[in-house]
Amino acid sequence: MSVGPALQAIFAPIGKDGFTYGLLILNMYTIPAYLMIALSILSIILLFTIFHESYAGLLCKESKSPDSAYVLPKFDKYAAGVCLFLWFLNNSLSTNMELIATPLTIALYEWNDQDAVFNNGLLQTVSCLLSVGIYFILGCTRVGKFDRRKMILFALTVFTIYHVVNMPWPFYDGPLNYIPKQGNSTFEDTSIIGGCYERYSWCANTTRVPLMLYVVTATLCFGIAFPFMSSQTGTLYSEILGPRHQGFMQGVLAFFGSISRCVSPLISAIVFERYGYFWPTAGQLILLIIGMSLLGLFRKRLVPLQLVLRSDLTPK
């Protein structure tokens, strides 16, 4: 995750035209994609040649034996459902940031295409490096032993701060500028200079988030919040399921994340084109409020599964 955004920044100087090698078109947009394809193929090879699947600590079969001291109860479906929503929200936040960042900064700060790709890639790289440091702290210090519900709430609060700050408040500078046309041309070329497209009628009455606020919140808020959100949600979900085979339920978790990554960009892109960045930001805020509400409402149920002593189930 740290290298991905950096690749965009590294190859941005190549520009949109780049160069061709036979039928292969290489530019700042295609080269990172080709590298990801190569890494994916390498990952598949490593999966089938090196990875060995081994289960440990499962009580599924042992709990069914009459000689077992413990019985594995059913997991709390409501608690698991809250984690599924939180994972959906986590992926929605991530995808929305990746999708909106480039067109948003082109419209707000008049960055051209190359500057937008490079600068946003740089911001995401710094953010991801910060996340790596926090993952290290969570994995190697006592911080990782804190109440997972509180850490998730902390992440949701930090995400909320970002979205509140990056709303187009009326006291910010505005309105936004449209892309200047070159000479008698009617073509809006963002490869030269950024701004709002003429079809963005909302730019005429939309304000601009101060650049320093955007830079600071985009790096710090996302860099700090994602480790507390993603790692703790996945871990809590696994603990709620308990020491049983989790293949299907982990697949359900991945399914909710994938649905979010499919649906969120489509909705955000359509809403951004027609109404500006207020409603995509407000939509994420609504999801965050729902997430915090569910976390508070089901707080007592969001706990690791407790095994039951067989003697407690035996009629006396």
UniProtKB/TrEMBL annotation:
Keywords, alphabetical: Membrane, Transmembrane, Transmembrane helix, Transport
Cellular location(s): Endomembrane system
GO terms for cellular component: endomembrane system; lysosomal membrane
Record field: transmembrane: 31-51, 121-140, 152-172, 211-230, 251-271, 277-298
Chief localization: membrane
InterPro entries: MFS_Domain-Containing_Protein, MFS_trans_sf
Keyword Transmembrane helix belongs to the record: yes
Membrane topology per record: Multi-pass membrane protein
Keyword Hydrolase among record annotations: no
Protein's name in the database: MFS domain-containing protein
Organism: Steinernema glaseri
